[in-house]
Amino acid sequence: MFRHVNITIYFICTWIFSLFLCTNFLNGIPVETFRDQLHTPLILLTYAAMYQAPAIISYGIFRRWRVFAVFFAVLLSMLGHLFVFFDSRLYDLYTFHLNGFVWNLITTPGGIESLGADQTSFLLVAGYSSMLIAVHVFSLSLSAKFPRMQIHFGRIFILFLLATIAERGIYGYSRANMSGHVLERGDAMPLYQPMKMNTFLQRLGMDVKKTSTIKLDQSNSQLVYPKHPLVFSEVEKPLNIIMLVSESMRWDLLTSQIMPNMSSFAQKAWDFTEHYSGGNGTRQGLFALFYGIHGNSWDMFLRNKQGPVFF
Fold first, then answer.
1. Which is the most buried residue in 53, 55, 130, 235, by most CB within 10 A?
2. pTM assigned to the model
3. CB contact set of 106 (below 8 Å; sequence gap of 6+)
């Protein structure tokens, strides 16, 4: 089978399947403007190809040994599809992608179960694996029917390069004026590399927006926040709430020896000692303090200009 494969036809088939898998990442992100309508197909077309790039590159390296080259390319292509599939399941559940933390979790005994995996999940994986094998067998069989059909790979690469440059430019421009939907699509795609061109655009005379100047407006938010309508009740004697926030201070410094005044004040007040960290940075920590949710949602809330219900 491997000897008679038209590898270009095979890669086109696997790229189409990769394109189908990538559409799941963009579900729920609005396409409202012409910029959105242009950026959506560009990011799908280019990143669907990038996830298959290891297979394409490996074939180019080992093409002198054709059977081995095709076999290894098929193996890497399937692994690329598996990566996109598992990442999309993870993103659906937790809105973040595969990373070192997730890898450490799934390689630790009981880690997969802690991610919410059950018998249904394993059946889903088995079903997807069967479908994946069928897709690649079909792609190999289809490509073998066109052994002499020549497609100029160089022209395809030039089109891919132009599409990538266009997508990069749209993202960089959108990042400069904080266009939320374009940036959300970038966040949604695994292994996405953000493009920053603020300095270049400023030299061209563009007014680059800063996050500190963005006004919070909850009227046009795409977030489901808060989950339920707020219910207020009158309080006879409203209390003033004062938050004392210390930058980069460990919890174990609040002792009578190190901070005697604050320690004395804590003994007279409510002292909450069992809480979860919202992140290991200032931005994530303050976000979690005011919103009561994990710090990794900071970018999404900023781009939707969503203020905390606490305010």
1. 55
2. 0.65
3. 112, 115
* Token code pair at residue 299: 């970018």
Let me know: does 93 contact 72? Beta carbons within 8 Å: no
Amino acid at 181: H
pLDDT tens, position by position, for the chain (311 residues)? 566 778 888 898 999 999 999 998 988 888 888 988 999 999 999 999 999 999 999 988 888 888 888 889 999 999 999 999 888 888 887 777 887 777 777 777 776 666 666 656 677 778 888 888 898 888 888 888 876 666 677 788 889 899 999 999 999 888 887 777 888 898 889 989 888 887 777 777 776 666 544 454 545 456 788 888 888 888 888 888 888 888 778 888 889 999 999 899 888 888 888 877 787 778 888 898 889 888 888 878 887 778 888 87
Question: Of 287, 285, 292, which is closest to residue 211 (Cα–Cα)?
Answer: 287
Instruction: Please check whether residue 74 is in contact with residue 135, taking contact to mean a CB–CB distance below 8 angstroms.
Output: no
Residue type, 307: G
3-state SS string for the chain: CHHHCCHHHHHHHHHHHHHHHHHHHHCCCCCCCHHHHHHHHHHHHHHHHHCCHHHHHHHHHHCCCHHHHHHHHHHHHHHHHHHHHHHHHHHHHHCCCCCHHHHHHHCCCCHHHHCCCCHHHHHHHHHHHHHHHHHHHHHHHHHHCCCCCCCCHHHHHHHHHHHHHHHHHHHHHHHHCCCHHHHHHHHHCCCCCCCCCHHHHHHCCCCCCCHHHCCCCHHHCCCCCCCCCCCCCCCCCCCCCCCCCCCCCCHHHCCCCCCHHHHHHHHHCCCCCCCCCCCCCHHHHHHHHHHCCCHHHHHHHHHCCCCCCCC
